[in-house]
Amino acid sequence: PRPTRKKITKERIPNMFEKLKQEKLEVLSRLHKDCCALTTAGWTSARSNPLVNYETIICHYIDKSTWNVKTVNLETKPLGGASTAENLKSNLKSDAGMFNLPFRDNF
């Protein structure tokens, strides 16, 4: 039988999220913390009313075994306000902490 909407939203999606988060934490735990960079990308949904600002936070690093640049999408979420430097900085700092990455305030 097909899973119900409730089962998908209350169990499967949260379980998938936790599994992916743990996989990301495992990868990031092996990094030399001074050898990564966080970037952010933002956009506004043209299909929502009122308009919603979204943000993606990405960690970039060099794989020590292959010397290839790798990226990990830490999070994509609604910004919860205007796309100001303060809001972006706050989200970067929060996500860095959630993934045990250093945050240097260079703004």
Could you outline the blueprint of secondary structure elements for this entry?
Layout: H1 5-29, E1 36-45, E2 52-62, E3 69-78, H2 85-98
Antiparallel strand pairs: 1-2, 2-3
Q: What oligomeric state is this?
A: single chain
Q: Helix amount, in percent?
A: 25-40%
Strand fraction equals: 25-35%
- Order of strands across the main sheet: 1-2-3
Mean pLDDT: 86
Describe the structure.
The chain has 107 residues and is an alpha+beta fold. The protein has two helices and three strands. It has a three-stranded antiparallel beta sheet, covered by helices on one side. Strand 2 and strand 3 form a beta hairpin. The mean pLDDT is 86.
Based on the model shown, name its key terms.
3 strands, alpha+beta, 2 helices, three-stranded antiparallel sheet, single chain, 107 residues
Structure, briefly:
The chain has helices at residues 5-29, 85-98, and strands at 36-45, 52-62, 69-78. By secondary structure, it is of the alpha+beta class.
